[in-house]
Amino acid sequence: MKKILVSFALLFATFSAHASMIWRAVAVDAAQFAQVQKNPDLLGRMLFSKGDQTISLDKDWHGIHYLLTGTAWDVKDGAGQAILGGEEFGDDLGYGPAHMLTAAQVKAIAAALANTSPDSLAARYDADAMMKLDIYPTVWDREGPRALASLLMSYGELVAFYRRAAARAQIVVIVMV
């Protein structure tokens, strides 16, 4: 347990120099998830490995969540679970514990994301509302169209990530670092 706390403390220190709250996820099969539960150090290695089983939305996570749900923190069914959904497990990693989405949840999220077009998300973009709700990072009024373009690019990556995980019947583990 000490090893994982030290590993995440180092990762947190690396990112905190930039005062960032970064969203990362990894898709794993049931056996890999069981190994993560037995040996939490594996999660850190998996989250920062290369390949199509990992994704980082960097700081776009909260903006995408807002566009999907219309809220700052509420988790809704379907696509509304993609960013903040799942069951918490393990220790607090600095911004809370990891979250786990089952393969069935991943499949439902992937289907809902596939039915949510970038155009429909763009229509929901409201910089004033996002600023009032304190959607992280609070740049929406300054960045405007550039921020929206970044959100939509990250959204495309999120859709592809969930599509691959659903096709492989994988579990998704989400963390904030």
TrEMBL record:
The keyword Signal applies. It comes from the Bacteria. Residues 1-19 form the signal peptide. Keywords: Signal. The keyword Signal applies. Pfam families: DUF1877. This is YfbM family protein. It comes from Massilia pinisoli.
